[in-house]
Amino acid sequence: MTAVPDPASSLPAADDFHVFDTTLRDGAQREGINLTVADKLAIARHLDDFGVGYIEGGWPGANPRDTEFFERARDEITFRHARLVAFGATRKAGVAAADDPQVAALLASGAPVITLVAKAHDRHVELALRTTLEENLAMVRDTVAHLRAQGRRVFVDCEHFFDGYRANPGYALDVVRAAHQAGAEVVVLCDTNGGMLPAQVGTVVAAVLAATGARLGIHAQDDTGCAVANTLAAVDAGATHVQCTANGYGERVGNANLFPVVAALELKYGREVLPAGALAEMTRISHAIAEVVNLTPSTHQPYVGVSAFAHKAGLHASAIKVDPDLYQHIDPERVGNTMRMLVSDMAGRASIELKGKELGYDLTGDRDLAGRVVERVKERELAGYTYEAADASFELLLRDEVTGAATRFFRVESWRTIVEQRPDGVQVNEATVKLWAKGERIIATGEGNGPVDALDRALRVGLERIYPQLARMELVDYKVRIVEGRHGTRSTTRVLVSTSDGGEYAGARSASVEGGGGRRAGEWSTVGVGGNVIAASWQALDDAYTYGLLRAGLEPPRD
Ligand SMILES: CC(=O)SCCNC(=O)CCNC(=O)[C@H](O)C(C)(C)COP(=O)(O)OP(=O)(O)OC[C@H]1O[C@@H](n2cnc3c(N)ncnc32)[C@H](O)[C@@H]1OP(=O)(O)O
Ligand SMILES: CC(=O)C(=O)O
Fold it and tell me: How many A from CA of 89 to the centre of ligand 1?
């Protein structure tokens, strides 16, 4: 029988290992990312907190923003862990390194480390640089030697290395040797077009190491979806420097994602590449950087996505109840994430029991109660409800079963909306609600941008005198979906509403409901279903405010 190999057994012998982040240079090359200097400084601080060894800040001289970033980073950030790296190219053909203004700008940045991009593919030298193979080697040698003579550490990124090695291995190796012999500390083999697969990367890295003895790094683009695997294959083959970007941002489809790479190195290889305790900050740092670049964090990102440890299948839950390790490759807390139970029509009693525990309800041993909740969930999901996206509505359903009574702070007698389209183009949306709360009959009206907004305002006008806590709550998201599409306008409509009290009543309810499913703390989600979008919205609003009042610490009156 063959045992599964332990990656730790193939660890390279080198004492130190570079975690090199290029979010601010290659990450910024992603379509849709447009960073200000302040954004770059904020990301640099997050990366330094996380404990990466090197932060490539950009290409000084290529644009005023990157030049300013290096000036300000020098004055404004005291790096605790990272060294700042400036990126640029080898000297131009036919120009002395000392006379090349692009090389001068790298020195002027003040960065202690410089990464030079060098051509390693003969075809690129001839077509893109329009120079000779020999002159390209001289460009690499001269630029490295010049920067070394000025007291800088130098890494060389061999662009298109793997394609170049396939086309002309002798020349690709000459470029590595030229960089190494001129004083480059690390020669980074780049899969610039991202077309390589892990076995190819491993074979080439091992061959280059054997042929040159240079310290090697890896820079993998993700065009085959293999950038993380390619990075680890390079490490297995002896690379001791990994270039990555936060959340995998980068040119085209992106780069090797920093977070799964360092998690693998720390947790699977047993190699301490971050300061003690930093890995447990990984989820927070990943989301904080996503905020700065103004992209929604990917819910399904390995290790740090909100779904990375979310369990939906009933069979999984029944095993997790015994031991979470049975369906998780690591304890989520090690990377600062949390396990979550999802309730849906794939749930079983164990899912309900675990979800109940998450919400603060002990259902242990009450198989009948858990069974009744499973049945209600399955019936309602068949009718179009979805509870995995509406934890607060699920908690109300669960609470009703546990207490044996409906959780209600108010009871609706009727509601009505009017949409009036006037000949001058003005539309008036008006709603009237008739409610009972604390024994009082209330009639209220509201106007709004649409009929649901009008209904929401009427509800608040009617109830805020009795429940002033409602004034803190606002709808922050509203989604409508046609569940059964075959009947056109007669289809079933599902409405999901997210409500927030801005954290005002934080702590009164379960953190998994408040912040779960990618929502911010202080937010909760509810669902309504109906043949009519307004009726479905009413249900979702009713649940939203009922849950909000529970969250505010109120107990529903018994009437
Ligand atoms: C694989 C990567 O991601 S590498 C990183 C790439 N990043 C970027 O390109 C972002 C920043 N780039 C820029 O702002 C601009 O392209 C600049 C300022 C660097 C250069 O702008 P320009 O001077 O207008 O040149 P342009 O962009 O058209 O072409 C690049 C030049 O660099 C040369 N060049 C390319 N690679 C190298 C190299 N490794 N060593 C030396 N010269 C190089 C090209 O031959 C070309 O020279 P030419 O102007 O004599 O034709
Ligand atoms: C250097 C770099 O970004 C690349 O070769 O992809």
Answer: 7
Q: Which residue, by CA, sits nearest to atom 40 of ligand 1?
A: 90
Measured from CB, residues less than 6 Å from any atom of ligand 1 are 26, 59, 62-63, 89-90, 92, 117-119, 128-129, 139, 159, 192, 251
What pTM value is reported for the model?
A: 0.87
Residue 516 has pLDDT above 50, yes or no: no
Q: What is the pLDDT of residues 48-58, one digit of tens each?
A: 999 999 999 99
What is the spatial distance between Cα 158 and Cα 221, in angstroms, rounded to a whole number?
Answer: 13
C-alpha of residue 119 to centroid of ligand 1, in Å: 11
Name the closest-CA residue to atom 18, ligand 1: 62
In our burial notation (b when 16+ CB lie closer than 10 A, e otherwise), range 314-330 reads bebbbebbeeeeebeee
C-alpha gyration radius of the chain: 29
Q: Is the pLDDT of residue 15 over 70?
A: no
The total of other beta-carbon atoms located within 10 Å of residue 300's CB is 10
Query: For domain 14-293, is the CATH number 3.20.20.70?
Result: yes
Residue nearest to atom 45 of ligand 1 (CA): 129
Q: Which residue type occupies 128?
A: A
Which residue's CA is the nearest one to ligand 1's atom 16?
62
Domain boundaries, the chain: 14-293, 310-385
Q: Is the CB of 320 under 6 A from ligand 2?
A: no
Q: What is the ipTM of this complex?
A: 0.95
CB of 222 closer than 6 angstroms to any ligand 2 atom: no
What are the backbone dihedrals phi and psi of residue 102, each rounded to the nearest 5 degrees, phi first?
A: -65, -40
pLDDT, one tens digit per residue, over 421-477 is: 999 989 999 999 999 999 999 999 999 999 999 999 999 999 999 999 999 999 999
Instruction: Tell me the pLDDT tens digit for each residue of 167-209.
Output: 999 999 999 999 999 999 999 999 999 999 999 999 999 999 9
Give the contacts of 95 (CB within 8 A, at least 6 positions apart): none
